Amino acid sequence: MGDSVYEQLVRERLILKANTTANALHTMAVERVCAEFQAAAVHRLIDDDVLSEQETEVYKRGRNAKGINPPKHSSVGEYRSATGLETLFGFLKLTDRTDRIEELFSLIWERAEKDSKQ
Q: Residue 56 CB: number of other CB atoms within 10 A?
């Protein structure tokens, strides 16, 4: 659930921001949906102490889930962290906290934009 929520947000932002081909939009989306990007994003949220205690617990529950097999291009740690972020987004969606989803996603997006300009 959470992976689709996160990916939809990425694709919506890109479509609204970029006036380019479908292939270029897809490439940009893949860069922001990959495990490496998501892992870095969630670590920034944690480092900045943005997540509530409950959100941190949900993230950790997803991160520590058994049976995670990462793709060849990402490490186990990155994949687990990304899974935890997706778990958090799924939890927020299922508990109808779309305002919090947007808040967290905006923080992730703004930081990525800032980092890409440096």
A: 16
Residue segments in the chain with a per-residue pLDDT below the cut of 50 = none
Q: Is 48 helix (H, G, I), strand (E, B) or coil?
A: coil
CA distance 12 to 66: 31
Q: Report the 3 state secondary structure along 16-35.
A: HHCCCCHHHHHHHHHHHHCH
Give residue-wise pLDDT tens across range 32-61: 999 999 999 999 999 999 999 999 999 999
Give the architecture-level CATH label for domain 2-117. Answer: Orthogonal Bundle (1.10)
> Domain spans of the chain?
2-117
> Quick one: CA dihedral 26, 109, 69, 59, positive or negative?
negative
Computed over its alpha carbons, how large is the radius of gyration of the chain? 14
* 3-state secondary structure at position 64: coil
- Catalytic annotation, residues: 3
